[in-house]
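Final report, results section. Input specification for complex C-07:
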Amino acid sequence: MKITLEKGDHVLVDFKKADEVHYLRWVIIDDKTSQFFEGTDKPPKLVYSSNFDGSVENHLKKLSSNDLDAIHDPNSLESVDETMNLTDQIYGCCEGYPTDRNPTSRLNYFKKHTVKVSAFYKGSPRRTVKQILQENELRKHIRDLLEKRDWNNMSSREMHDKLKAEVFKDSRFTWAKEKFRMPRINWFKFVLLIIVIIILLPIIIIWQMIVQFGYENKDKYFTTYRSDIPTKKTEFLEEYEDLTVGEDPETGKKDMVINYQNQFSQLVDMKPGKVRLITFKAMMLFARVIIPIKYVEGTLLNIPTIHFARWVLFDDNKRVLFFSNFDGSWQQYLGDFIDQSGWGLSAIFSNTTIFPRTNWLGITGILSMNNFMPKSKTFFPGGAYDEEHFLAWSRSTELPTDIWYSAYPDLSIKNVNNNSRIRSLLAQNLSEKRAEKFFELI
Amino acid sequence: MYTIELEDVQGYVLREYENMKFSRFALLKASDPHKARIWINSICGQITNAEKVKKDELPEIALNIGFAKDGLLSLGLSEANLESFSPPFKEGMVTPHRQRLLGDIDSSDPEKWEWGNPDKNPAEIILLVFGKDKETCLNYYEKLQRNFEAHGLVATRNLDGLTLKDNKEHFGFRDGIAQPIVKGSGRTGPDYNCVNPGEFILGYENNYLVFPDSPAIFKEQGDVNMLPPSGARPGLRDLGKNGTYMIIRQMQEDVDGFWTFMKDRTKKEDGSIDEDASIKLASQMFGRWPSGAPLSKFPDKDPGGASDDNDFLYYDDDRSGAKCPFGSHLRRMNPRDNFEHDSPEKSIILSNRHRLMRRARLYGDPIIGSPTNHKPDGDVGIYFTCFGADISRQFEFLQYTWSNYPKIKQLYFDPDPIIGVVENPEVKTVGYGNDRHEEKQLQQFTIQGEPYNKTVKDLKRFVTIRGGAYFFFPSITSIRYLCTILPEKES
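Structure output:
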């Protein structure tokens, strides 16, 4: 099921009304009738993943309520039970879904099937959907004022003061008076973390050697190329990158627009054995610790295009799901992985099967970060740095995201953070120099 | 150290054939694979290679050949071997996904293309014929054409290209100045402009130090011993070695619309035309002045003449974009040492992972546009041609990420003003709560400056795609090999 996302006339409009969901997706896994799971003996499963404001409890309550309208497909001959709601319509296909359907029974069902996240990243910490959308309007309003008024012979500081007064007068922007402080890197904790890592270094090095000589060298590697992936599969995945595939109800023509955001869903199997599991879990722990300390300003491992990302170890520690919501195209995103964070990716995914041959968990990639890629092959870290094989691996482990929703498909994560910076600076009293910086942002 | 087997590489990848002012790209359709192979084999000896030639020994004619997927099929290459080509080549330039990625919508919709639409007028084989002037080129083509009929070949379309004074394109700007230098090609240049051979020639290491995805022989056909062993796929023969992919797009240029827009947006307060200001705005959008001089070095005025100046970077000289706006075509297409927020050293490495070897030939009225001369006689445009070993990471990345995607650097609504603007911007719901309203997607060009950035709003699209295709541009050895294959049906 592929659904239009931003036309406002589809099922997800209810979530839009809810205004607390940033992104959501439904992905079907282990469906042996799909080309992605041919030959599997596992029963098919429906995976729901969302990024929302507020507590899990509240989010699940919303999903369990009676309020979500069912989808009425005008082309379908099947009549839909008018009393049915969206949640029942979707989950009614799932085994074990309560037959006595009410908010409580649904909530209990969802709680029972909730899977814990292993690591999670948000590109706009501490901001709700509401704040993100409001701040975007604020930025546009400031831009309009700049263009409409005459600012001759004014210093940047005077301009800032005048803009501030004008915006605060406007009843639409009273919320902007409330101070917002941009999340900042916690350098103290970061240094502490580095010290801990240095202390642990001997153990890490020994562990790396165990992984390298005891496992990696004996493993089977991913050695295929993008051309080896069946064209049918690539084309199918590419189709799911076109986010607005809605049809014009009158002409039946598919919508043709250029999209600015995209999704990535990936499912991989863990390599067998405790060593791989411990390494993976250690990387997840590392991610959980470092993300709130270091990656709070809109970049994850220097990648400036990720809105949300999550890793989920599930199925009795045997499989890993990776979901992300990002700006731009597949090639751009996967390219960023290699260019900016190949070592992190390699250290995580070299524990899954099968991955391009990785040396020292890809961590030598860090050493070459400033000068970037090693100039010679001697210290080649492999893994994600093995560009062609990594891209082919990414494609071959990717899944179509059956349903995907974005609350702000026109905003890049850089836009979101820039808007917050503008909002934060607007409310302050700025020196001339800082006021000049303020205007660079607009 | 790298060494490319230049004598086996077709010339147009590394040579511009600058002295050859006229070209004819003939789109051929083969009805008889056997005869077509005989004919192609007969011209192999004439194919121009990539070896460096001294200035006074430059030939007067040149010949190269490329194959789209349908062309390889009609020569009889088996499906199994075709599958080994890279995904964009296999799928072709026209898929619903690629249309959205490349922006081939509205007037540029492949439905309206003059050639290259797989359902209506697919490209198969392209013969690239060059001559020092029109007569030389067409005489040479005539000679070649004499044998078409006997070999079941039909020229379905001739794309005749010319070059204008100072290598200017129809909008009036000197083109093709900055090209990457390929290591091992015998050409040299500053380090920051050098790339590994595998960026442009298959069968060699690319900038990631790995072998690019190169087609190989999976199912034995013809005389495979002619082909070198594959570096990427041990045990297989490399069909791609010394070859590459060639991308051709026919871009119609709306010269009148372009200069009318520039003049309209730079009118003086009293409503009169300000020619200099219109040239400046157009140059800011391009990133170079009509002469080719870069704005980052000459921010105020065109020094004139014909400039080949390519010796500049951005980080030290123009980090804020005050001289050459971030959104300019030039800066987007090669951010040099100022890639997003990365350090200068890293920026160069990243920029060089997305380079193109560009070639361009013009068509139509030989007009060189300016504020006073912008009404061409009939359709004019450019046969934009480029080469790259990875269509997805190079050409498609540039067209989507750096052109159509409006959010590079800190920009919000700025597509590439020359090649990325959408004709009919989408109407979207924006805002929050009660303030929710519909709004047309903005398209603007931001000019960085003090005290605040200025914007040129409601950009217009000046380029229409009229045709295009992805071609395999094989080595001369691989062309000879292709002439030995026997399709399953024939053998």
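The two ends of chain B are 43 Å apart (CA to CA). The CA atoms of residues 211 and 246 of chain B lie 18 Å apart. This concludes the modelling results for the funded period.
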